[in-house]
TrEMBL record:
Molecular function terms, GO-annotated: acyltransferase activity, transferring groups other than amino-acyl groups
Lineage: Bacteria, Bacillati, Bacillota, Erysipelotrichia, Erysipelotrichales
CDD domains: NAT_SF
Signal peptide (residue range): none
Gene3D superfamilies xrefs: 3.40.630.30
Pfam family, one: Acetyltransf_1
Record-given protein name: GNAT family N-acetyltransferase
Keyword Transferase recorded: yes
Keywords: Acyltransferase, Transferase
Domain of life: Bacteria
PANTHER family attached to this UniProt entry: ACETYLTRANSFERASE, N-ACETYLTRANSFERASE DOMAIN-CONTAINING PROTEIN
Residue intervals of the N-acetyltransferase domain: 1-144
Length: 144
């Protein structure tokens, strides 16, 4: 991501969330031996959910978060495979929507979500950090 000037992941994020994701059984990983190929968290809420205009707000939804693919495995369909798994899990627990937020400058991720049927919703979630840094995030959703 840094190579593409998308500086949103570092030593703190997403690493600081992994222990909580594991303890709450919401982290999904594809690994080859001891190498992580891809991972995502599937959550029942998101801090930005009230800042955008979701379709059918009262419908049950899950949020995919921290989706990442090891750069050694990029352009091999892993992102699509992970999205399909997230859809499958979300559907199996009775949710009608899979939703997510993506930083507005992360064009590769936006293309992946659009290619896989996610629709952009109106609104923006500006995530403000302690040091005043702001990530502008846009919401996407897919009805299952």
């Amino acid at each position: 991501m840094n190579k593409n000037n998308i500086q949103i992941w570092d030593d703190i994020y997403p690493c600081e969330f992994f222990e909580d994701d594991i303890n709450n059984k919401r982290l999904y990983v594809i690994a080859d031996d001891e190498e992580i190929i891809s991972a995502f968290a599937l959550c029942d809420n998101n801090a930005g959910e009230a800042y955008v205009e979701w379709s059918e707000k009262s419908s049950k939804a899950m949020y995919i978060d921290r989706l990442g693919v090891n750069v050694e495995y990029s352009k091999k369909g892993i992102g699509q495979q992970m999205l399909n798994k997230a859809k499958e899990i979300t559907k199996s627990i009775g949710a009608e929507y899979l939703r997510l937020f993506v930083v507005d400058i992360n064009k590769p991720a936006i293309r992946l979500y659009q290619k896989n049927g996610f629709t952009k919703v109106d609104g923006v979630y500006d995530e403000v950090f302690d040091d005043g840094y702001v990530l502008r995030e846009i919401g996407y959703e897919i009805k299952l």
